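Title: Prediction job returns without error message
Component: structure pipeline
Severity: low
Priority: P3
Assignee: unassigned

Description:
Job completed but the reporter wants confirmation the result is attached to the right record. Sequence as submitted:
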Amino acid sequence: MISQSMRNTLLLAAGVLVAGGALAAGADLGNTTKQATNWVAIAMFAGFVAITLGITKWAAARTKSAADFYTAGGGITGFQNGLAIAGDYMSAASFLGISGLVFANGFDGLIFSIGWLVGWPVITFLMAERLRNLGKFTFADVAAYRFAQVPMRSFAATGSLVVVAFYMIAQMVGAGQLIKVLFGLEYTVAVIIVGVLMMCYVLFGGMTATTWVQIIKAIMLLTGATFMALAVLFQFGFNPEALFAKAVEVHSKHQAIMAPGALIKDPVSAISVGMALMFGTAGLPHILMRFFTVPSAKEARKSVGWATTWIGYFYILTFIIGFGAIVMLTQDPAAYYVPKMVDGVQAVGADGKPVWDGLRGGGNMAAIHLANAVGGNVFLGFISAVAFATILAVVAGLTLSGASAVSHDLYATVFKHGNADSASELRVSKMTTVCLGIIAVFLGIAFEKENVAYMVMLAFAIACSANFPVLFMSVLWKDCTTKGAVAGGVVGLVLSVGLTILSASVWEAVLKNPKGSAWFPYSSPALFSMTAAFAVIYLVSKMDNSAQAKLERSLYPAQKVRSETGLGAATASGH
């Protein structure tokens, strides 16, 4: 049984996560209690695995080169890639976390979904086309286009691997905790299953298999969420106003659930969290990598359009699901809530009614319990299978981006100085995939009882403070230099990690220091670390008058032409 304070912490943590990755069900669920084995859920998940392993076998026959492995040969259409991006981004925390936030706090839950969603126009107008025209396999291709390769790629690969590592640990812990609740399987078994399946998808099928796993998962998640939202609205004659009015009536906070301010009260934290949500997306390596899977810049733009459409639609659904859970679960507390026990007897309030101690499985199980309320055990099994598939799809994307950072950026460019052939690069990718999979399983088991919420917050802080400023300035500012980009990126990386450690989420919750002793008082370091990264890039670049800096500035016009026209960009066949 999870305490009230822990539930509140987990709910807030889930909101600050992404997307995504997004995001970690482990941070959502905490140290959960194993439930009875749900054979319907296990059967549906087995069906998903069978289909996706069949796709992996088909993809393996098509994965012959490094280009096939990293980017599916650049042969994914804009519509398919948009659906795959949505599948990569709509994580367990997006689904369970936002609906749980809305269930607990009402309107405030929408703040986080809006924050994640508005990051996509940034990618659409500033990044998508330029990424596709300048890059080949990883975002380091873009950031290092006119710069010294070794320092830029070393930094970019480090930034990618750090983001992937923190994100991956949280996902693996999330998988174990989520499956313990939904399927009734042991934590260790669930973590090993995720690790083995993820290695199979990536090792044999590469980007082609990963893309189709993400597409199938996105379709399943959108279908399930649509059914739940329609089932809720059907109860109120498809009148959202009636739904909200009933929620206000039955929720313990009443009218307060329709007003902001319950989660983040100080403006600095609000701005900082908003920056992390918006700009972190544009620095996530597994999201940026997807833009190299399409044959042209036009398809890259189209894929962002479709991704934004599906993700926006999904977040509307989670809002309805959250309010539906308020109405339907509170009406039947005996079925979905844990009784508050005092001396072995359920407590009774002053009004003579039984007192309940939160949802079974924790606050972020609202969507799962609602699935049972509207569709019975079969639909509960389907949604449980979707939640597991969600983690698998995100982990596969993370693994592929980590493997590409090691093999393409470090091995082929830094160690081999661009002289590695496709076969050796592909071999290193697959070796890295196995290593990442094994490490992820061990770390997932090691962190079973830890509060991992800060890891996903840290992944997004690093993405927006290190990766995004370097990518943004290298592509859009003519005076940016290697020294400036690397110095700014390192400052962003160090500050985001340092301030996160000094914040309450780590200093107090993980390191067990006294409450109120945290050195950094805000919810996210993004406002400070991202601003510092941009400032250092600007100042160091301006002060850099070396011959190398002059050469890099002289190369900007050619980079700009290619980034905006696609002249000389890699084609699907040579991609």
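Comment from assignee: result matches the submitted record. The beta strands are 337-339, 341-342, 345-346, 356-359.
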